[in-house]
Amino acid sequence: MPPGSTTIVNVGYRSTNYWVVSAGRSRLLLDIGWPGSMGMMRANLKRMDVPLNEIRYTLATHYHIDHAGLAQDFKLAGVPLLVLDVQVEAIPVMKTWIKPADNYTEIMPEGNVVISCAESRSVLEEIGIPGEILHTPGHSEDSVSLLLDDGSVFTGDLTHADHLGMEDPAVVAASWRMLWERGGRRVYPAHGPVRSMDPKFGK
Ligand SMILES: [Zn+2]
User: Please, which pLDDT band fits residue 2 given cuts at 50, 70 and 90?
Assistant: First the structure.
């Protein structure tokens, strides 16, 4: 494998994609499971040949329960949580949507690695992954996307312009436009199939 190249596998379940981005044996898990589903997550990692101890960080595209439900469980298993500064306030809000029966392990601030988007390139470089994390609000204010230098972009729930609900169309369009201008060409969403990026995703 040439230096700087990355591989991507999906360890998702229950209609949600969880992406493992790997540079050799140095890995990042993007979006972090449903609450109480660590057994399912471990089984899927194993099935896809991803040893848990090779995951260097977990990162949530945003703090909705199907995207960050296992963040603390991973921390307890030794994998630190990478948090963007624009996400910090959204973490405690998430638990208001979770029922006791969900068996959620509450995310504590201790041990979280909080960085800015501007710092993300160097943090990713330390684990061998060429790319950056960008603030892409629209679906939620705390939404971020991971953009790799090869054009792969992990957009979480950033909404297609044809499927807008409560979102502000201008904010959504600005996020898509920025991702396109910065080189995003293949979209790995949190739900649904991988697709080629079209600059008109945000219209
Ligand atoms: Zn969401």
Answer: low
In sequence order, which residues have a C-beta less than 8 Å from that of residue 83 and are 6 or more positions away? Answer: 60, 91, 112, 113, 114, 115
Determine the distance separating the centroid of ligand 1 and the alpha carbon of 137, expressed in angstroms: 11
Q: What is the whole-number distance in angstroms between the Cα of residue 164 and the centre of ligand 1?
A: 13
In this structure, are residues 112 and 85 in contact, taking their beta carbons and an 8 Å threshold? Answer: no
DSSP code of residue 45: H
- Does pTM surpass 0.85? yes
63 closest CA partner among 190, 151, 202: 190
The vertex-90 CA angle with 181 and 170, nearest 5°, equals 35
Ligand 1 centre to CA of 139 (Å) is 7
Alpha carbon of 182 to ligand 1 centroid (Å) = 23
How many whole angstroms separate alpha carbon 203 and alpha carbon 196?
15
